[in-house]
Amino acid sequence: MMIEKPEIVRWRYDYLSKIIKLREERRKIYYLDETWLNEGHTKSKVWQDLSIQSTREARREGLSTGLKAPSGKGKRLIILHIGSEDGFLNGGELIFASKKGEGDYHQEMNAKMFEEWFSKILKKIEPNSIIVMDNAPYHSRRLERIPSMIWLKSDIQKWLTEKGIPFQPSMLKRNLIDLVKPEKYKYMAYVIDTHAEKNNIEVLRLPPYHCELNPIEMIWGQVKGYVAGKNTTFKMADLKKLLEEALQLITPAAWQKCINHVIKEEKKMAELDHITDMVADKFIIQVTEDSTSSDCSSSESEVNDSLNISDF
């Protein structure tokens, strides 16, 4: 039986519980994400078939949930956008040409760029809304750094002093970090979460490795499919025009269809987590009973051995 990391299971459970509750409250939910387009992007299979139930199944069927990383050098467009059941947010896109011709497109994005874009987005979104995103590093800059073992001992001591946490000057670094651990949760707020809260907007982060819970992933597949079918010049200016056309052609109905698909996935995951929990409990009970039985057998054997002369 494959076992996921407990923190991932816990994160998924918390996320699913939260988003189901938010939907019941009829809160407006937005989804944001980034992707890229290579200027040589042409027709290939992408995950647009909603009969495909997961990223794993998509791969088994020879489809992808997006494009594979480009091979070789070439210019790319990086796209950042946000949408909801009403479609893409008007004026919410950020499109720019990459400076690097290869490597992960995430290297082109940084916290400063993302936070500037996010601040503009907050002005376009109605209060009491929810924004769903993944936990990419540039989405997750902390308001302040938290001490760790790579810090200088003097810097850890300074942090503890500023927070009013008492310590002995003679304490080792690892002991100082032990003082930090129970207090650090108070200082782990994200920069963008704080900005959102000021606008009465809540940020909700997807659990790691669960991109299939973001409907914009399927929307990107439709956008890229359109561009691939029309891209004949392989020039950056034409690529950008095709991208803008594709974004305009994505309807609220398309978004709603993808969101409905994600809602079904959420329910399946929640049910599977409960089933896995029950199976794990039965497995533990069975192992415990077997261990008890084994212990009894062992004890009986030891008694028999005590009544007979052993071979050694």
TrEMBL record:
**Region annotation (Disordered) ranges:** 292-312
Q: Which InterPro entries match?
A: RNaseH_sf, Tc1-like_DDE_dom
The terms under GO molecular function for this entry are: nucleic acid binding
| Cross-referenced Gene3D superfamilies | Ribonuclease H-like superfamily/Ribonuclease H (3.30.420.10)
Residues in Tc1-like transposase DDE domain copies? 106-229
Residue ranges, compositional bias (Low complexity): 292-306
What Pfam families would the database entry show? DDE_3 (PF13358)
Q: What name has this protein been given in UniProt? A: Tc1-like transposase DDE domain-containing protein
What organism does the record attribute this protein to?
A: Euphydryas editha
